[in-house]
Amino acid sequence: MTATQPTTGPGTEATEQPGVTGAPSGSRKPGGDVRETLYFALRNPKVLVGGFVVLAFLLLGLIGPAFLRYAPMDYAGPPMAPPGGDFPLGTTTFGQDVFAQFVAGLRSTFLVGVLGGAVAAVIGMTIGFVAGYRGGLIDELLNMLTNVVLVIPGFVVLIIINAYLGVRSVPMQALYIGIFSWPWVARAVRSQTLSLRSRDFIDLARLSGVGVGTILRREVAPNMYSYLFMTFVLLFGGSILTAASLDFIGLGPTNAMSLGLMMNQAVQWSALHLGLWWWFVPPGLGITLIVGSLYIMNVGLDEVFNPKLRET
Amino acid sequence: MLTLDRLDKVYRTGTFGTSDLHAVRQVTLDVQRGEVVSLIGESGSGKSTIGKMVLHLLDSSGGTITFDGRDVTHLGFRARREYYRKVQGVFQDPFSSFNPIFKVDRTFETLRRSYFPRVSSSDWRGRLEEALAAVSLEPGDILGKFPHQLSGGQLQRLLIARALLLDIELLVADEIISMLDASTRIDVLNLLVELKSRGLGILFVTHDLSLGNYVSDRVVILYKGRVVERGVTAAVFDDPLHPYTRDLLASVPHLDRTWEDVEAEEAERSAALAGRCLYHEALAAQGRALGEEASAADGDDVGLVEHSPGHFVGCFRLAAGDPCPAGA
Ligand SMILES: Nc1ncnc2c1ncn2[C@@H]1O[C@H](COP(=O)(O)OP(=O)(O)OP(=O)(O)O)[C@@H](O)[C@H]1O
Ligand SMILES: [Mg+2]
């Protein structure tokens, strides 16, 4: 992995400084692909900026609580205090520390987003890949299932589940959200798989005696990595928003704080009219920044995964 | 070695399979060791479909495929894996034969993982270089490149090299030279001839008659999914019988003869064969020999009769629904 650039391979790196680019083109070994992808990822400004913002929020949510003096729900200080002094983001109508709430909210927001997104992604992608690749009867059955779940008003079902089963923990909420948000993923993945399936390299992999699972994993999915990541970003954002809506109607987790809950409490207690911008701007901005950064990262990753885009 | 017996393929198209497309009709042919059999037909005649059925990439709708005396029409995953050790294919479009996001090396790596997990890296590297040399490629120019950085001809030869890494007995070559320029084309054709002399059987799919002539021992002429004529290359090319074959051959330039000669010969032949159908004449002759009732048999009319030794011809009608020119 030093600057031992071989004399061949002028194609990709011709326009760049030889010293810097020696590493990726030198790694001819199979398996060098992962390292190379990482190498390009770490040089892509969009990936870097997006990743930095998301990681910063994640870190704040993870290690922030250790440095807090007040619990999120404590009536800790003067009501409606603007940012400054003891309370970096001010206080609510009840004198609760907005910063403490924000940090705690970040945690559950990430948890809902990641868990809900992951559940929906796993179900949706599995169904989409299998339906698209196998075709025939399996496809028709899975398609039927997808359409049934698609027309079920997911939000209403979530309300019923939450209300009657009384599920109030964040992971449970995430799980239920995930179970009802996969159909569009399955459809999108299915149609992409369908178009990839007819390409000759899939047939060539079959001629190499490789099984269905391996073909999906090694030939089909890699062509959709950036797309799958995009899907995850959307699911992530969607889960957060659904969770926030559930929180608003009082069906959110009772034992936890979330960014959605913060915004909804702010609205409920007329923070808008009272001019308490520090109550609703941080959670709103937080959600926007997290989802937006993931989106920017996705655009960058598109360039990383697609060698044709890399060169230009 | 490979025998197709009355192979059929019906594509279900339209929603709920309402309309069917009969892409391959009752195709019977065989390929022996050390022999090149050309499958010739215009675009859409079902050549690739036959190739894919032989390679078990498509299920056949009827008929049987036999390889080395074993019925291989239906194979499970394991049996298919073993089958692919002996039977490999190279496809029409080299650009879509490689996963665009990976370096071309990966295609070979997949093969190695699957069939040669115990071969050491250096050993494999040696074999790879040998296979690349066989298709006159320089490993240094090729390995470590992405598919879009290579030419169609280079990719096509890489695919042949891939097939050579396995110790195959049958190669299905689907229009493998249509993407190549004239000089590489000859290289690849010579390579095929050399492989043939090593005992490999090759099913050579093409729409180019002059190339079919150059490499093949026998030819199969396909029209709209039906075999209209087949036989030893020289016999079919020198004495084409079926109207479709005659049309096809009339448009091939000959180096050794003038157009006038060729046209005169063809005019003479079509005059002799006009309004006739050798297939039904032969059937009728057989029927007379066997007695009245036998002549009504074989209503399907997709079979072939042996006109002269090793030269088979089918009913002279063109499309499946057309009437036979002899009115039979
Ligand atoms: N997956 C499919 N579904 C439905 N019809 C198909 C499918 N694949 C091929 N066909 C049809 O089957 C017929 C034969 O196709 P095939 O690809 O075998 O032709 P071909 O002889 O290889 O032509 P070419 O020289 O253009 O490659 C065509 O009419 C085509 O439209
Ligand atoms: Mg074809």
UniProtKB/TrEMBL annotation, chain A:
GO CC annotation, single: plasma membrane
Query: What's one Pfam family here?
Result: BPD_transp_1
Topology in the lipid bilayer: Multi-pass membrane protein
ABC transmembrane type-1 domain location is 106-298
Checking PROSITE patterns in the record gives: ABC_TM1
User: Which keywords appear in this protein's UniProt record, sorted alphabetically?
Assistant: Cell membrane, Membrane, Transmembrane, Transmembrane helix, Transport
Region feature Disordered, mapped onto this chain: 1-30
Bilayer-crossing residues are: 47-68, 110-133, 145-165, 171-189, 227-251, 276-301
Q: Which GO terms describe its molecular function?
A: dipeptide transmembrane transporter activity
Q: Which Gene3D superfamilies match?
A: MetI-like
Q: Identify its protein family.
A: Belongs to the binding-protein-dependent transport system permease family.
Protein name, please? Peptide/nickel transport system permease protein
Q: Which organism is it from?
A: Promicromonospora thailandica
UniProtKB/TrEMBL annotation, chain B:
In its UniProt record, a GO molecular function of this protein is: ATP binding
Q: What SUPFAM superfamilies does the record tag this protein with?
A: P-loop containing nucleoside triphosphate hydrolases
Q: Which UniProt keywords apply?
A: ATP-binding, Nucleotide-binding, Transport
Q: Domain of life, per the record? A: Bacteria
Keyword check for Transmembrane, yes or no.
no
- UniProt key word Transport: yes
Read off the Gene3D superfamilies from this record: P-loop containing nucleotide triphosphate hydrolases
Q: Name one Pfam family in it.
A: oligo_HPY
Every ABC transporter domain range: 5-249
Q: Which GO terms describe its biological process?
A: peptide transport
- Entry-linked PROSITE patterns: ABC_TRANSPORTER_1 (PS00211), ABC_TRANSPORTER_2 (PS50893)
InterPro entries per UniProt: AAA+_ATPase, ABC_transporter-like_ATP-bd, ABC_transporter-like_CS, Oligopep_ABC_C, P-loop_NTPase
Identify this protein by name.
Peptide/nickel transport system ATP-binding protein
